[in-house]
Structures are given as C-alpha cells and as structure tokens.
C-alpha cells in the first residue's frame, strides 16, 4: 500500500514539476504582442525595432535560439541524467529556469534596459537549464513504473506538457493586466517553489526508500538485492551507441518534424489569433488552451489504445494522417470562436497527442528494449536524444515560420505544417508496417511493443 502511495506521489509531483517547466516557457508566447509593442514604442530610449516585421523576426529568433540551446543541452543532460541523481538534475533546472526567466522578462522592463544581445544571451541560458527536465523526469518515471499499462500511464503523464501550457496560458492572461514583466516574475516564483517540492517529497528510485521495513514486506529483500546487483553491473550507454539502437533514428526523424509543428502552435498560436482575427491578447491566450486540451485527450486515450493494441506506431501514423486534414480545415476556419476552438482541439488531438506519445511512451519503450539486455542506465540518454533531435528541428522551424508568414501569409504556414507531418509519417512508415505485420501475427495485446526481429 505504501509503495502504491509513493508511486502516486511520484506521478503527481513529476507531472506537476514538468508542467511548471512548460508553463514557464509559455510566458513569452503569451505576451509577444505586448513585448513587441513595448519594444517599438519605448520613449525613454530609441525603439528597439523600427518595424513590426523586424520585431516579429526577432521574436522568432528568440524561439529559435531557445530551441537550439535546449536541443544541444538535451543531449548533454540526457547522458548526465544516467550518471547523476535525476531528482537533483530536475530541481537544478527548475531553480535555473526561475533565475534566467526573471533575468529575461522582468529585469529589462524594471530597469528600462532593452538590448538585443542581452535578450538573446538570457534566453539561451533559459534554454540550457530547461533541458534538465525531460530526460531526468522520464528516467524517474521509468524507475517507478514498469511495462504494465505503460502507454496509458505515460500517455497520462506526458499530458503534463499541455496541462502546463494551459496553466501557463491562464496564468499569463490573469497576470498580464499588471504588466507583461510580472508574468515572467510570477512564473519564476512558481517553478522555484516547485523545485523545493521535488527535492523534499520524492525518491529517484523505489529502492531508495526502505519499503521492506515500512510495509513489513520482507520478501522484497531478495528481489531488491538482485535488482541492485544488476544495476551495479550496468554501465551507462554511450551517445552514439544509443542513436543506433533499433527504432531510435526513425523516431528521431519523425520527432524532428512533429515537434516543429507542435512547438509552432506553442510559440505562435496566441500571436496568430491576435494578428489574424484582431482578438485581444488575453482572449487569444485563453482560446489557445483548446489546442492543449486536444493534446491531453490524444495523449491519454492514445496511450490506452496502444496498450490494448500491443503496438504504438499504427495509431501514431493514423493520427498524423488525420492531422493533415485538420490543419487544412483550421487554415480556412475564419474568425468564428466556437468553430475555431473546436477545430483547434482536433488539431491538438492529432498533433500534440502523437508528440506526447513519442516523447513519453515511445521514449521508455526505446530506452528499455531487448537490445539493451536489461541495462537500466540508458533511459535518460535515449530520451535526451529523441527530444533533442526534435528540438533541433523545432529550432530551425522557428526561424523559418516568421519568414514564411511575412512573405506568403499565415495560410502558407499551415501548408508548411501539413508537409512536415507527411514527412513525419514517412519517417516511421517502415516501423508502422512491421508493427502491423506483428499485429496480424500475434493479435491484440500480445504484439511486442518493440519487435526488433526484422528491424534494422
């Protein structure tokens, strides 16, 4: 009973902590219009930018440098997360995020200091410390939750990302009337407090708590001892070795395309709604949560379905196919709030849902596959590679998006997203075919989640 309580506590605290990571990233996304207006109308000094297109391009550059720093750091923190206590890595990233976010968004406004190099430098630092979170959170979850119902558990847990986005959007909309600088300050305070909760309330691995004595379950002593011996014999896997594990490269390529689209909605959706339909910024922030609500539904339901199927790639491919149609409809939906939010939710189900499954359930599948021969020191590394590759693609996209939008308009941006999702489908098409063959051979619920017999 105590073990179950501890597992629930780990689930909730890691869910909340990574939700705070995402909420803090949402701060800039929700105040872009306000920051842009401030940069261009500051009367104390010369305006930071002379035109709207220059300011928008710089905002895109900030998103890009954040994602580039985040991507590079993910490889580093992923490898380090298998060598250090992941709980401490998560907490360190949260404290660092609080400091750098305040430096970026609050201090320049308070001290009337507007500098392009300063904004770039502090947002790069923010990206570097934000990368502490995901690989180490995945490692903690993998330590506590086994293979049973992994898709549902990790699908529900990976919903921490859209939940964090929703909390960030609502929080930003509520604080924005005080001034955009306070959205950064209060987000920083929340994530700083969250770091203390992580350090004080959870263990990185089950065996760190003495469950035998607390529960009186002495029969666990021998199994825990043998597990510890196995873990001591395991060596952390190398970065290059992890890249060439079965299935890793295919999902990395898929995630490079899919994360670009998912994060484009994360970074640009409120600004798009403000510019395309002239809705108020706080109103756009609140409306944008429907994308994340769709992501939650797609992640949780998708995880449950893939558990029952015994494989994940066919559902992911099916959702991505549907995403092409939903993106086309959303590009032409027009300024009708009800229909806009409805189709936006569908886009969230078919884009954010598969993304959450890949970086959550698939990440653990790949980091614990038979090719690793029981090596438990690979989870954070594989997760860092998968998410780092996706972040690299997303970084490139944040440079391209404002250029495409400024040159051809928002409609063309959505066609760009459709093309990327088609490429994401092609990246895992072979994996999908192998899983479908295995599904026909073994039947539902008995299909190996990562059948590497015929994989390359």
Automatic annotation (TrEMBL):
Q: Topology in the membrane?
A: Multi-pass membrane protein
- Which keywords fit this entry according to its UniProt record? Membrane, Sugar transport, Transmembrane, Transmembrane helix, Transport
> InterPro entries, from UniProt?
MFS, MFS_dom, MFS_trans_sf, Sugar_P_transporter
The record's subcellular location field reads: Membrane
Transmembrane spans: 57-77, 89-107, 119-140, 152-176, 182-202, 248-269, 289-306, 313-333, 413-434
- The protein's superkingdom reads Eukaryota
The record places domain Major facilitator superfamily (MFS) profile at 10-436
The residues forming a coiled coil are none
Q: What Pfam families does the entry give?
A: MFS_1
Q: Name the Gene Ontology molecular function terms of this record.
A: transmembrane transporter activity
| Recorded GO CC terms | endoplasmic reticulum membrane
Cross-referenced PANTHER family, in alphabetical order? MAJOR FACILITATOR SUPERFAMILY (MFS) PROFILE DOMAIN-CONTAINING PROTEIN, MAJOR FACILITATOR SUPERFAMILY TRANSPORTER 16, ISOFORM B
Record family assignment: Belongs to the major facilitator superfamily. Organophosphate:Pi antiporter (OPA) (TC 2.A.1.4) family.
The protein, known as: Major facilitator superfamily (MFS) profile domain-containing protein
**Species for this entry:** Diploscapter pachys
């Amino acid at each position: 009973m105590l073990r179950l309580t501890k597992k629930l506590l780990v689930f909730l605290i890691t869910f909340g902590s990574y939700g705070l990571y995402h909420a803090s990233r949402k701060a800039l996304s929700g105040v872009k219009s306000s920051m842009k207006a401030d940069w261009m109308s500051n009367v104390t000094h010369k305006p930071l930018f002379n035109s709207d297109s220059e300011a928008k391009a710089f905002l895109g550059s900030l998103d890009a440098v954040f994602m580039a720093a985040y991507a590079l750091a993910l490889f580093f923190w992923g490898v380090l997360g298998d060598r250090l206590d992941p709980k401490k890595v998560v907490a360190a990233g949260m404290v660092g995020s609080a400091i750098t976010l305040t430096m970026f968004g609050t201090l320049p406004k308070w001290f009337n200091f507007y500098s392009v190099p300063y904004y770039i430098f502090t947002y790069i630092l923010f990206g570097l410390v934000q990368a502490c979170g995901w690989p180490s959170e995945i490692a903690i979850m993998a330590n506590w939750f086994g293979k049973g119902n992994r898709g549902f558990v990790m699908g529900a847990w990976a919903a921490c990302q859209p939940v964090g986005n929703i909390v960030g959007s609502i929080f930003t909309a509520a604080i924005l009337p005080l001034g955009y600088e306070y959205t950064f300050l209060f987000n920083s305070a929340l994530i700083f407090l969250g770091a203390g909760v992580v350090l004080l309330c959870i263990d990185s691995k089950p065996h760190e708590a003495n469950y035998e004595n607390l529960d009186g379950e002495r029969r666990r002593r021998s199994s825990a001892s043998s597990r510890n011996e196995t873990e001591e014999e395991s060596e952390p896997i190398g970065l290059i070795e992890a890249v060439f594990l079965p299935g890793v490269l295919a999902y990395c390529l898929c995630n490079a395309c899919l994360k670009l689209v998912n994060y484009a909605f994360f970074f640009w959706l409120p600004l798009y709604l403000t510019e395309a339909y002239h809705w108020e910024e706080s109103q756009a922030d609140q409306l944008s949560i429907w994308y994340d609500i769709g992501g939650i539904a797609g992640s949780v339901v998708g995880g449950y379905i893939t558990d029952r199927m015994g494989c994940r790639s066919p559902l992911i491919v099916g959702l991505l196919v549907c995403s092409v149609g939903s993106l086309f409809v959303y590009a032409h939906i027009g300024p009708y709030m009800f229909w806009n939010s409805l189709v936006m939710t569908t886009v969230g189900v078919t884009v954010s849902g598969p993304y959450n499954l890949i970086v959550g359930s698939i990440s653990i599948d790949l980091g614990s596959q038979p090719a690793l021969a029981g090596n438990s020191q690979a989870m954070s590394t594989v997760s860092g590679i998968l998410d780092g590759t996706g972040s690299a693609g997303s970084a490139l996209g944040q440079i391209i998006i404002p250029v495409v939008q400024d040159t051809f308009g928002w409609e063309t941006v959505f066609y760009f997203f459709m093309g990327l999702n088609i490429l994401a489908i092609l990246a895992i098409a072979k994996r999908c075919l192998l899983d479908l063959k295995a599904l026909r051979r073994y039947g539902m619920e008995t299909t190996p989640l990562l059948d590497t017999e015929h994989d390359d």
